[in-house]
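Class, study these two lines:
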Amino acid sequence: MKIATLIIRTMLGLLFLYTSISYFFHLTPEPASTGEFKAFQVGLVASTYLIPLAKTLELLCGLSFVTGKYMTLANLVIFPVTINILLINYFLTPENLPIALFVFVGNIFLIFTHWKNYKGLFIADN
């Protein structure tokens, strides 16, 4: 289980680092988008803050995953981003769904492997 955790953590971390660094430094050309996804993407770009915020979170969590530091926090911070990645790809670009599934299931797997750290969040205090 430790080896699987290390492999998934590293792969997710490298993927998040690659996508965020290539966004900030314009390392890869922007793929041409069409149809409903193009309309959605125009809305995201028009917000001016949402994509840079998501890419900053991906960068920080990618660093956390690669180094293994602050994993409990990084899993929680990146969870809404992974849900959005999954839903956007499911509804708008199903050809990218396998990568989105890997990101989402990998995040769930890492939360599961660190579950003892999250137990305190589910205790109701009076």
